[in-house]
Amino acid sequence: MKKKVGFLDIINKRIFFPPAIALVIFVFIGILFPENFGVAANAALDFVFKYFSWFLFPVALVMLGFCLWAGFSKYGNIRLGGPDAKPTMSKAVWFAIALTSGIGVGITFYGVYEPVLFSMTPPDFLSVAPMSEAAIFSAMQFTFLHWGLHPYAIYTTAGLIIVFMFYNGKQPFRCSSALYPLLGEKAYKGIGDAVDSLFVFAVIGGTATSLGLAVLLIARGLEYLYGIPSNAVSWLIILIAVAGVCILAAITPVSKGIAFIGNANTILYIFVLIFAFVAVDPLKVTELLFSSIGEYFQNFIHLSLYLEPIARTGWISAWNVFYNAWWLACAPLVGLFFVKLAYGRTIREFVTVNLFAPVIFSFVWFGFFGGGSIIMDKFHGGTIGTLVEKIGSDMSLYAFFAQFPFSGLMNFIALVVVVLSIITLVQAIMVAAAQMTCKSNDDTTGEVAPPKISVIFWGIAMLMIAYTLLISGGISALQTISVICGLAVAIIFCFGIIAYVKSMHNLKEFDTYSNGDLSIYAKNEEIASKVENMQVQPSACTDENGV
Predict the structure, then answer these.
(1) Key word Lipid biosynthesis present in the record (predicted)?
(2) Per-domain boundaries in the chain
(3) Residue 546 has pLDDT above 50, yes or no
(4) Residues near 355 by Cβ (< 8 Å), separated by ≥ 6?
């Protein structure tokens, strides 16, 4: 008779319980003592900003350089899973999931709000007039800085330092596997367990931040469209509904549940993008987009390193440093999720799809929505900025569509985009967190689903944390937890980068397929490409998984 396997037999207790207990304590303190919680959180935030901004902000530039080296050096041809490994999904589906499980929620929340806000109230250290040309171009540059190469370099780094050791080094599906080249088997003992527990805590908190922002955006949309008040009660109902859908989707195999929602969401993204481009002023939007991209790259190094050491207005910390810390907090398990999708791909493809393709989309999104909003208000009598000032940041996307015919329909579609974005993100994190906190399994392709009960637990945990943050301090509390967790993650990532470089220079020791001979990947590259063209791409319509 087969022995019944219980929950405690499934999970890795050393990784599961520390963050689980810490998160439960966190929730209860936030609910019982919301004011004290907010004061303590702000004190911790100020400490991190004061003493570690110099590290948290420039570290993204280091990670970008690391991604470029990893993808475009001679090691970029390494195929994940071995030279004969075949991808499990098409590049189109892969890109859709990577985009919507990364910063999909963020671009819908801030796509209009941030460029308009920075144009109307430019940073004091710039000394430029509101809505002037200088203010508008600086607004677009800072927006691209926050949502362009930096976040995706952080996410891609999180995946890179794990993906090779998992598929080619045959190490466990754990964040601590990134440290295996430095620590050996010690990576899975005390230090490794502590790293994995910290990462789980950080990413659940960071994802709860995104979930909280999405709830505010959804609640505002329901209020604007249907008159349902945006308050603590509606937030809780939305959270329960989103968590329920996420759990149902996340307990299905990756290629069925997440891919379907990711595909649908990407189609809607493209639809609203086309509408935004055509509805405003295509010529002016295009000119502003290209000019802003040029300004961004021209000043990229300065933007990436500037910490206003003289002016000290606090703007850089509140925006630039916060964003980097937010990405870092979410990165470990987003990176693990990227790993689950990468079987059969080369390292170069991993970097291209997870870094460059989403960045291009992000440029277009903020150019059409943010740039389009600025043009509407400045040249066509728009009231987007006025509505945002009057109602709040969560009104920005709906304020944009309110300027045009069919605003009711477009705002409904925008609401659906937000809902699908958060579902894709949350279910991706639930699956990755559940798999990392369970005992090892025989997953070699990233397709094995973790136990359902573990997935459900982490979904409920994110729901409770997001609600705690919302009722104890709103967006400010949501931001705080991200910054604090991101600092610890950044430090560990730096060691992960060193470990990755070591593994590449010692392939004979860490690559179970090549024995140090990179030529086996080069020989199979052309064959693998032909196989993908014949087998993977047509599956976008006929795959048995519905991908």
Answers:
(1) no
(2) 69-539
(3) no
(4) 67, 71, 149, 152, 153, 155, 156
Check residue 392 and give left, alpha or beta (phi > 0: left; psi -120 to 50: alpha): left
pTM here is 0.85
Phi-psi group of 346: left, alpha or beta (phi > 0 → left; psi -120 to 50 → alpha; rest → beta): beta
**CA 178/CA 164 separation, integer angstroms:** 9
Give the residue ranges of DSSP H helices in 33-73. Answer: 34-56, 59-72
Asked if pLDDT for residue 464 goes beyond 50, the answer is yes
Q: Is the pLDDT of residue 442 over 70?
A: no
Residue with tokens 């086996």: 520
pLDDT value at residue 102: 60
R_g of the chain computed on alpha carbons = 23
Helix axes 407-436, 452-505, angle to 10 degrees: 70
DSSP state of 87: -
Residue 523 confidence (pLDDT): 65
Residue 478 has which token pair? Answer: 């949501």
Q: Which of 258, 164, 96, 173 is nearest to 432 (CA)?
A: 173
| Nearest CA among 483, 507, 178 for reference residue 320 | 483
Length of the chain: 547
Choose among 106, 144, 137, 107: nearest CA to 122: 137
- pLDDT category at 166 given cuts 50, 70, 90 is very high
Domain made up of 69-539: CATH architecture: Up-down Bundle (1.20)
